[in-house]
Fold this protein.
Amino acid sequence: MLALPLLPVPDFWITQSIYIGLYALVALGLVLLTGIAGLTSFGQAAFVGLGAYTAAYLATQTGLSPWLTLPLGVALSVVTALVLGSLTLRMSGHYLPLATIAWGLALNYTMANMDWLGKYDGILGIPTIKLFGADLGTGRALHPLVWALALLAAVGCTHLLDSRPGRAIRAVKDGATMAEAMGMSTFRYKLTAFVLAAALAAVSGWLFAHFQRSVSPSPFGINKGIEYLFMAVLGGVGHVWGAFLGSAVVRLVEDELQVLLPKLIGTSGNFEIIVFGLVLVAVLKYAPDGLWTFAQRRLPARRRVRDWADAAALPARDKPARGEPMLEVVAARKAFGGLVAVNDVSFEVRSGDIVGLIGPNGAGKSTTFNLVTGVLPLTAGQVRFRGQPVGGLSSREIARRGMSRTFQHVKMIPEMTVLENVALGTYLRSRSGVVRALLRLDRAEERQLFAEAERQLARVGMADRMFETAGNLALGTQRLMEIARALATDPALLLLDEPAAGLRHKEKQALAEVLRQLRAEGLSILLVEHDMEFVMGLTDRIVVMEFGTKLMEGTPLEVQASPAVRAAYLGTEH
Amino acid sequence: MDASIAGILALDGLGNGAVYALLALATVLVFAVTRVIFIPQGEFVAFGALTLALLQSGKVPGTVWFLLALAAAVVVQDLAAGLRQRRPAARLASQALRTLAWPVGVSLLALWAAPRGLPLLAQAALTVALVTPFGPLLYRLAYESLADASVLVLLIVSVGVHFALVGLGLYFFGAEGFRNPSFWDQRFQFGGLTLAGQTVIIFAASIGLIVGLWLFFERSLAGKALRATAVNRLGARLMGISSAAAGRLSFTMAAFIGALSGLLIGPTTTVFYDSGFLIGLKGFVAAVFAGLSSYPLALVGALGVGLLESFGSFWASAFKEVIVFSTILPVLLWRSLRDPHGEEH
C-alpha cells in the first residue's frame, strides 16, 4: 500500500485509497472498542472532528507546525474520552453509546455555531504537511503517510490484542465478575479501549484536515459516526483487518451509490443511507462476524510458537505453614431487604485442608461463597483471610491477597485458546501495560506468563490441550481449565463453586484426583458442592448449611451420621 | 427577563416537554420489554406530522406506499422462513393475510379519503392508523429474530433501522418541510400570559395518554403481560406469555405514541423528513435520566428537557441543542453515583 503512488494508478484511486486509510484508522478504534471490549460509540466522528478542528484552527491561526498540532489534537480527544468514559463506564454498557450520541450532536452544533470556528463554513486554507522539507501535498505524496499511520496502528492493535492488557480488554467483554476475580479493573480496561479508539480517531482527523485543506462540521456529524461503526461491523468487528476491509467496501460502494441511487430514484439526496441501514441490519442478522471471516477462512491459521521453555519463573508468594488458619468466617450475615440469605454463619479453613460447604438448594451456599470472595458486601460479621480482615474489600483486592476462585457456570473467553485463558490468571503476577504491549517490549514477560500457564495446565493434566480453542472443550475439561487459571494466580486458598456440577462419573473421579494432588502440594481448598459422593470422598471437613444458617460442621463421617443433616436433605418422618 | 417572558418560556417548554415525555415513555417501554434501545422512535413523530400535512393538502401521503412496502417485506420474510420450515401453504397464506389486512385496508381508506378533504380530526385518526402499524412491522423485520442478542447488537440494529427509515422518509415524503394547522385556535389570557389552544391539547393528550398507559399496565392482562416480560423474559415465557407478541405489542404502542406526538408537535414547529431524530433524542435524554426504567422519572426528565430547551433558546438560541444534549453529562454523572453497578451481559 505504501508504494501504491509509485505505480501508474490514476489520481482518483489514490484519493480513494487515502480515504480508505483515514476511515480504517477510525474503524480500527471501533474494532478495539466494540469487537474486543464489547462497548460501542456512535461519536467517533466527533473525535475525528476534534482532531481535524484542532489541526485546522492552530495551523491557520497560530501557524503551528502540523507535527505539533497532532499531539495536541490527540490529547484533547483523550481528555474528552476520559471524561465521557469515567461518567458512563461504571454503569451498564449501553450508557456509553448513548452518551456518545449526545456528545457527538453537542460538539457538532458547537462547531457549527462558533464564530471562531467559522460556523457552517468551517475553516479554509489549511496548509499541507511538510516532512523533512518535502511538501506532502494532498495526493500521491500524502498517501504513504496516511497508510504508514494506518498500518502502524493496525500492527499496534495486533500487538496489543496478543498481550497482557489485550487479554484483559477481551476479558471485560463478557461481564465483570471473572475479570475482577482475576484482579483486573474492568473499568480501567474499558476506559483504555475507549481512549485508544478516541486517539486513533483524532489522528485520522488530523490527516483529514491536511488532506482536504478545509474542515466544516458536516463530515463529523452523528451520521458519519454511525457510518464508521457500520464499516467496523461490515468488515468484522472482532478483526483488526476487518476494519480495512469494511472501510474499503463502504468507501467504494458509497461512491457508486451516490451516483447510482439519485439516478434511479429521480431526485437528489443521501439515499445511500437506506442501503447502509438495510445492510447493517442484514449483516448483524445473517453474518455477525462480518466480511473478514470469509477472507480469514482462506488464510492459514497461525499457531503460537512454544518459545517459553527456558523462561524464568514468575514471582510467587510465601506459602502458609500447614495448619495455619487461612479463612475465618465469623458470624457472616447477608440480608437482601427483609430476606436473610446468610444468617450469622461461622466456620474456618486451615492450611492444607479441603473443606466442603454443602446444603440443600437455597441454603445460602453460593451467597456465602460470594461474601467470602467479595462479589457481595457483608451486611454484618467478619471474614478474615490469613489473619487480615477482608470483609468490604473488592473481589479484585481479595484476589491480590491470594484467594482465587472458579465459577459455577464456567466463565472464560471461548474464542481464545486454553493457554491464553489460563494466562489470564497470571494477571496479578505480571505488570506489562498498554505502551509496552504496543511496542512489543513485553515479550520476555509474556514468555514467563505462558510458561506458568503451561505449568498449571500440566498440574491439572491438560498440557496436551493448551492450543485448543477453549470454547470447543467439553464442560469437564473447561472446569479443569478454570482450576488451572485459578492456580495461575498462585493462590494460598482455592475456592471452587460446584466444580463437579454437570460432570460425568469419570470426569468427577479425575477432578477429585487433581484436587487431592493439590492438597498434597499444600494448597487449601474450600468447595461448594451438591454431589455427596464427591464431597464425602474428598473433604477433610464439611460445613452443612440450611435456610441460611449453619446446621453443623464435622468430618464426612460425622456429617453422614447426623440425623439433622439427613432431615435437612430428605425431610423428617412424621 | 421579566416574569411574563419567563411565563411564556415556561409554558413553551412544558408544552414541548409533554411531547418529549410521551417519547421518553415509549422509549422506556420498548427497552424494558425488548431490551431494544429504539433510536428510530423519533421517526414515527416525523411520519405522523408529515402524513397529516399531506392529507391536509389533499395528497396521498407517502406513508401509504411506505407502509405497503414494509408489509410486503414482512410477508416475503415470513414466506421465506415458512418455506424453509416447510409449513403448509394454507398456514402461510393465512399468515400473509393477517400481516397484510390492516396495512392494505388502511391504505385503501387513505387513497379514498385523501382527495376528499375530510375534517381535521378524521385525518388525524387516519394518520395514527397509518403510522401505528409501522411499529410491529419494523419489529418483525429487524428485531424479532434477534430477540436474544445483546443490548449492544440490538442498539446497532436500531441505528441501522434509523438510517434506513430516514433515507426512505426522504424518498417517500420529499425534502420539503411542513407545518400543520393548529387543532384548536382558541387563545386564553391569564394576565400577561397567553395560553394557546394547541398547548392545552398537548397537555390534555399527554396526561390522557399517561393515565391510559398507567391503566393499561395496572388493570389489563396485556399490560401485566408486558410488565412480566419486562421483569423476566424467561419467566414470562414459562407462564405462556410470548415474548415475540410482547415485543410486537410494545412496538405497536411505541409507534402509536410516536404518531400521536407527531400530531401534537406538528402545529408548533416545521417538520422535515429527518426532524424526528432530534425530537426523539430529546425524549431519549429524559429516558436516560430515568435510567431507562422509571416512568415517573422519565416524565420529570422530559419536562426538564423541555424547560431547558425553551430557556436555552432564549439566552443562547444558537446553542440550545448544545445545552440540551450536554445535560446528558451531569445526568449520567448523577446516575453513575446513584447506580454504580453495571450488570452482567
